[in-house]
Design brief:
It is found in: Cell inner membrane. With 446 residues, the protein is mostly helical. It is built from 24 helices and no strands. The longest helix is centred in the middle third of the chain and has 35 residues.
C-alpha cells in the first residue's frame, strides 16, 4: 500500500471519528500515529513493524515537544488570560453599557449595542465562542426583557460573537501563523479592516430588519442625557486603551504580538484593581479558567502538528498540487473551490478541526498559485467565522442557545441568522475580490 493511499484512508477515518464526536485531539493523535506507523512499516514494501516503532515515536514526541516550546504559542495563554481578566474586571461589560447608552434612542439601539459590545469583547479576548457565551449572558436577557423579538435578540449576539475570529487578537490567526510560518503581527493587523467592515454590515442588517418589520424591536426609549453619555464613554476607556496597546503597539512597531499580549494583561489587571472591580478571588478564577482553556488548545495544537507531519509523509499535498496544475484551474476557480470546501466543512466541524484538516493541503496549492499567505489567512478565518453560524452545526448558535435556555431554542436563532450570513458572504466576496482590504495595513508592519 503506497503512502498516498494510507493518507486518504487516514482522512476518511478522521472524518468518521469527528462525525462520531470523538474529541478532536484524540482523533488527530490516533489517526496520525497509525498512519505514520503504517508508512514506516511498509517503507521497504514488506510490512516490518519492528522498524516503525522508533520512527513513529520520534515523530510524535519531537513534533509535540517542538510545538509546545514554540515562542509564538506563548501568546495564546496571554490573550486568553486577557479576555478572562477583562471580563472579571467588568471592562467588556462597560463597552456594551457605553454603546447602549449612546444608541438607546434609536429603535433597535440595544441590538446594535450588543453587536458593538461583541466587537469590543473580541478586541480583547480573541475567542468567538467565549464572546458569544459571555455577551449572550449580558445582552440577550436584556433585549428579551425589553420586548425584542427572540430571533433578533439571539441572532445579533450569535453573529456578533463571530467577530472574535477576525478582530485582533484572534486565536485562529495565531494557530494559522504557527502552521504556515507567517507573521502573527501582520495577520492581526490584516484582520482589522475586514473585522470593522463585518461589524458595520451587522449594524446595517439590524437597521434594515427593523425598518422592514418594526414589530421585532420595541419603541424608542427615552434618550440618555449628555452627562450620562459622557460618563458611559469614560467607563469604557480601559477597553479602548487595551485595543490601542494591541493594534497601535503592533502596527507602530513598538511591540511584537507576544509583548503586546503581556503588556495588555498587566495593564488590564492593574486597571481592574485600581477601579476596585477586580479582587484576588476574581483573578484566581480568571487564571484557573485560562489554564483550563489553554491546556485544551495546546493539546489540540500538538495533535494537529503530529497530524500535519503524518500528512507530509503521505505525499498527498504535492500530488494534489500536481493534479490541480494538470487540471489547469484558474486562480479564481481554485479559490472558489477552496471557499466551497470551507463553507461545507463549517456546517459540521469546529474551526480548529477545519484548519487542521485543510491547511496541510491548501497551503501548497495557494503558494503554487502565487497567492499571498497573509491575505489567504484572512480569507480562511472569515470562512471559519461564517461556519460558526452556519446550520446545521453553527457552534456559536448552540453555545448561545445553551446560555439563553428555553426562551430561544436553536431553531429560533437559526431563523434569524440568515440575514447576518448574507452580509458575511458579501464581506467575504469583497475580501476575495479586493485583497488590499486585508493587506493595506499589514504591509506597513515590519
Amino acid at each position: 500500500m503506497d503512502p498516498a493511499t494510507i493518507g486518504l484512508i487516514a482522512f476518511a477515518f478522521m472524518l468518521i471519528l469527528l462525525a462520531m464526536r470523538v474529541p478532536i485531539a484524540f482523533a488527530l493523535i490516533g489517526v496520525a500515529t497509525a498512519a505514520a506507523f503504517m508508512i514506516f512499516a511498509l517503507r521497504t514494501g514488506t510490512f516490518m513493524p519492528e522498524r516503525a516503532f522508533r520512527a513513529t515515536s520520534a515523530m510524535v514526541f519531537s513534533n509535540s515537544f517542538d510545538l509546545i516550546h514554540s515562542f509564538d504559542l506563548s501568546m495564546i495563554p496571554l490573550f486568553v488570560a486577557l479576555g478572562n481578566i477583562a471580563y472579571k474586571a467588568g471592562i467588556t461589560t462597560a463597552v456594551y453599557n457605553s454603546a447602549r447608552v449612546w444608541l438607546v434612542q434609536l429603535r433597535g439601539g440595544v441590538a446594535m449595542a450588543s453587536v458593538i459590545g461583541c466587537g469590543g469583547f473580541s478586541a480583547i479576548s480573541g475567542s468567538s465562542v467565549a464572546c458569544a457565551s459571555t455577551m449572550g449572558k449580558i445582552c440577550t436577557p436584556e433585549m428579551l426583557r425589553l420586548g425584542y423579538d427572540p430571533k433578533l435578540a439571539t441572532s445579533s449576539v450569535a453573529a456578533g460573537g463571530t467577530l472574535g475570529s477576525l478582530i485582533p487578537p484572534s486565536v485562529l490567526f495565531i494557530i494559522y501563523a504557527i502552521f504556515t510560518e507567517t507573521s502573527v503581527s501582520k495577520l492581526f493587523v490584516a484582520g482589522v479592516l475586514p473585522g470593522i467592515l463585518t461589524l458595520l454590515g451587522f449594524l446595517l442588517v439590524i437597521a434594515a430588519w427593523i425598518a422592514m418589520d418594526p414589530k421585532v424591536a420595541p419603541a424608542k426609549e427615552a434618550p440618555a442625557s449628555l452627562e450620562e453619555k459622557i460618563q458611559a464613554a469614560k467607563e469604557a476607556w480601559p477597553a479602548a486603551l487595551i485595543f490601542l496597546i494591541i493594534v497601535v503597539g503592533i502596527y507602530g512597531g513598538f511591540f511584537t504580538a507576544t509583548a503586546a499580549a503581556a503588556v495588555s494583561v498587566v495593564v488590564t489587571t492593574a486597571i481592574g484593581f485600581m477601579q476596585r472591580r477586580l479582587s484576588l478571588p476574581d483573578l484566581w478564577h480568571a487564571v484557573r479558567d485560562t489554564v483550563i482553556q489553554t491546556s485544551s488548545l495546546f493539546i489540540v495544537a500538538a495533535a494537529a502538528k503530529i497530524f500535519v507531519s503524518a500528512i507530509a509523509l503521505t505525499g498527498i499535498a504535492p500530488a494534489l498540487v500536481q493534479a490541480v496544475s494538470e487540471a489547469q484551474l484558474s486562480p479564481a476557480m481554485l479559490l472558489f473551490c477552496i471557499c466551497l470546501v470551507y463553507i461545507l466543512l463549517g456546517m459540521f466541524l469546529d474551526p480548529i478541526g477545519i484548519m487542521v484538516l485543510t491547511l496541510p493541503l491548501m497551503i501548497p496549492l495557494v503558494e503554487a498559485n502565487g497567492m499571498d499567505l497573509i491575505w489567504f489567512g484572512v480569507v480562511v478565518v472569515k470562512l471559519l467565522e461564517i461556519g460558526l453560524i452556519t446550520p446545521p452545526v453553527g457552534l456559536n448558535v448552540f453555545v448561545l442557545a445553551n446560555v439563553v435556555g428555553k426562551e430561544a431554542p436553536v431553531g429560533t436563532i437559526f431563523a434569524g441568522i440568515w440575514r447576518f450570513l448574507a452580509v458575511d458572504l458579501v464581506v467575504l466576496a469583497l475580501i476575495v475580490s479586493f485583497p488590499a482590504i486585508s493587506l493595506i495595513l499589514s504591509e506597513a508592519v515590519k
